# Entry
Amino acid sequence: MIDSLPPGLLLIAGALLLPLFRGRLQAALFVALPALSLWHLSGFFGREGVLVTLTLFDHTLVPLRVDKLGLMFALIFHVVALLSAVYAVHVRDTMQHVSALIYAGAAICATFAGDLITLFVFWELTAISSVFLIWASRNEESYRAGLRYLIIHVTSGLLLLAGAIVQFRTSGSLAFERMELGSLASNLIFVAFGIKCAFPLLHNWLQDAYPEATVTGTVFLTSFTTKLAIYVLARGFEGTSPLIWVGVTMTVFPIFYAVIENDLRRVLAYSLNNQLGFMVVGIGIGGPLAINGATSHAFAHLLYKALLFMSMGAVLYRTGTIKATRLGGLYKSMPLTTVCCIVGALSISAFPLFSGFVTKSMVLSAAAEHHMTIAFILLLFASAGVLEHSGIKIPFFAFFAHDSGIRCKEAPTQHADRDGDHGGAVHLHRGLPDDPDAAVAERRRVRGLYADPCADPAADAAFRRPRVRGVDADGAVSERARGDQPRLGLDLPPPPARTVGARRMGRGRADECGATRRRTIAGLDPNRGLPPPRPRGAARPKLGFRRIRLLGLPLAPGLPDRLLQLARVTPEA
Amino acid sequence: MSDHSQGWFDKPDNVRWIVRLLVAVCIVLVGLEFFIHKHGHFGFEEFPAFHALFGFVAFTIAVYAGKLLRALLSRDEDYYDR
# Structure
């Protein structure tokens, strides 16, 4: 029976059981499920072919078609899901765990889809499950970015469905095989794939939404959606020559955005776009060397990109900021994270002896063997650009550069974190600490947002030295900086001069930590965006209550509005 | 935790040694290109020090394009929140 179950379904089914558990049991299950699913997958190696068919309304669906290309992607999806689960296991947020596992499971199931309808189902499931990882940040920015992300991805799904229907009406087949561009059906499907693959001008959702997700959620997000798109392109449009130029454009243009971006996780999002370009070029060239290059580049890329996002997540978690202009000198505080980040940076820069060197060279060699001089030169330029923004900018600004004065702890090991590392904070389920600051820090921590550095006097001192113009989300400090507001009579830092660093920032938003600290000083509620705490000694909500609020969301009509109420901040008086 | 001690990379002497080492490695690698046949796919790849020069030019373009784009595109941190 289990032999005919598509790999990935175990993850989805297990994820639905997660809300029934809590605490350590839930955490253990969260890590055990990808491992179990990996074991399940191992049974499919060497069993290629159509293994399962379903009949639905006289149509034959193929939910389990096994071949080498799909197995390769399913394998690396499993490995990354397992590593990301270990990275996220300390997070006490059922919603994030459930959506992460469903998301990973859906992406894995999609790699075995033999027909367009099965593909559509899992295609949409990846979109719907992953958006909760963005919303899990529970702030206004992530809510809005998540909605934009959802709209774009549902559009992609609808185009795929439309393409599938047109193909069925014209050819009578729903099979997902190699297609030729030119017919209405294949064009629709091509655009659907292109949206998910972040083709140029269809890419904005990626840099918009990924950096808004939680520390751990971003690691999951960067892994599955775009690589699933690479897989379907490799299967459906191998050797489609327009993809070469689409891919070359994808490798080149994000470089310039990455160079001027200040949010380091957003820099990584641009660099993700650039890396996808190399894979798309490989698919466009076609042939064994290019397709193997694209696939192995996806394989290596998933590992080092996850590592880079994990190390930047650790920095955000510990320091509360991920702005290049605010960080620096962290190699003293976080040596292990520094080493991990440099390993990732060397791999993505295709440094000899690192994985990217082998896989990127395969794509470049394929371009050279087909005598594509201009494409080759542009890819070479893009490789230099990757070294600039991912290989040097990321580790340099975070860990070296000028010393920001931030002194924090090394990224937590899961065990230490669980036993109350971080300022003596204790677990939520043991009750909140009496100190309100510690309580806020703890509640942010268990949700995987990141610790509030204000809890650490040294980090607080670093933040007291204002480096950029006041950017409270309320605008309180900014208005005061403009001088058109009466002084509040508060002990706020003087409005800092506009620094060069502030001018250099690309798009961005208020730094939550600074905002939290200023709100605390101003006597406002630093707790905005989080649901009200349960009073000490109050009874735990009954099971029925929990069931209605499955996944942390109230199952009621008008869900987005309710979610907005949960996530958004009520304006303070 | 709040030590403000000097790290290894804060000492200018150490940084100077790293830079010297890198320059030496670069010189050796470029020097070797004159003696080793590279089997490039294209004619221009056979040109000695092609990759070193190309990398330098590409890097410079990326950095200076960044300067230009910053002047055109950069916004305050809270620009989109206002």
